[in-house]
Amino acid sequence: MLPNFNRSPGAPPFLIAGPCVIESEALCLHVAGQLKDIGEALGMPVIFKASFDKANRTSVHGFRGHGLEEGLRVLEKVRRETGLPVLTDVHLPDQVAAVAEVVDMLQTPAFLARQTDLITAAAASGRPVNIKKAQFMAPADMAAVLGKARAAASGAGVSADTILLCERGTSFGYNNLVVDMRGLVIMREMGCPVVFDATHSVQLPGGGGDRSLGQRQFVAPLARAAMAVGVDGLFMETHPDPESALSDGPNMVPLDALPELLRQLVAIAAASP
């Protein structure tokens, strides 16, 4: 069951977490099982995430995933066996209907935040949508994106109250991102739940030439800061062995380090708006 996306003051945030990409069924089931246990121990609602296709890899040789059909099969099995709600991203409008039949929640990639057809298709699906703010957009610019999504949802006769905005860092020169914490406040004032993506915010896009790099040592301080400012949910990619991950390893949190970090964040949430 999906959580209430609007966090009450002092309540734990919800967590969207999982590996960057569906590497295998076994990996997803293992990570999801661990996340379920962690969430139950901390009283933190968990939504499992993993991508069936990473359509924006730096190199044509980068691992993209196992495709739509196999990816949805794995996500459906995770949902059935763990009881966790599941989320995945869609890159094309014609993917939305098939994906929405299987998952509990959709996500649109940051690079595609201005793609009207994708945003409106996702919002009209009847599933909650986590819309990532583009790295090249100001927080205030997301009001127009949110407006598109709400109009599409209303036009389709579905709730517009489960459209979320997600901060994942802003381009700062070449191969670097920074997080302006004011953006969390600006987007929350738009009257929608706001999520902070702590792992993509420390990415160094294209920093490795044919791959992106990352600075996972900054995930914890940025997540603590965002939680203190006040967000409704957190997004973190995690992997049992990030060094061997097939996508985004440098910015993922090791799975065994996640419980302590989340304990800190729940404690901060208890005193945050």
Describe this structure in words.
- This protein is of the alpha/beta class.
- The chain has helices at 25-42, 68-82, 96-100, 116-123, 142-155, 182-188, 219-229, 258-269, and strands spanning 14-18, 46-49, 86-89, 105-108, 129-132, 163-167, 170-171, 177-178, 194-197, 203-204, 213-214, 233-239, 253-254.
- The strands form three sheets. The chain has an eight-stranded parallel beta barrel, surrounded by six helices. A two-stranded antiparallel ribbon has the order 7-8.
- The chain is globular.
List keywords for this structure.
273 residues, alpha/beta, TIM Barrel, 8-stranded parallel barrel, two-stranded antiparallel sheet, 13 strands, globular
Helix-strand layout with pairing:
Blueprint: E1 14-18, H1 25-42, E2 46-49, H2 68-82, E3 86-89, H3 96-100, E4 105-108, H4 116-123, E5 129-132, H5 142-155, E6 163-167, E7 170-171, E8 177-178, H6 182-188, E9 194-197, E10 203-204, E11 213-214, H7 219-229, E12 233-239, E13 253-254, H8 258-269
Parallel strand pairs: 1-2, 1-12, 2-3, 3-4, 4-5, 5-6, 6-9, 9-12, 12-13
Antiparallel strand pairs: 7-8, 10-11
Helix pairs in contact: 1-2, 4-5, 7-8
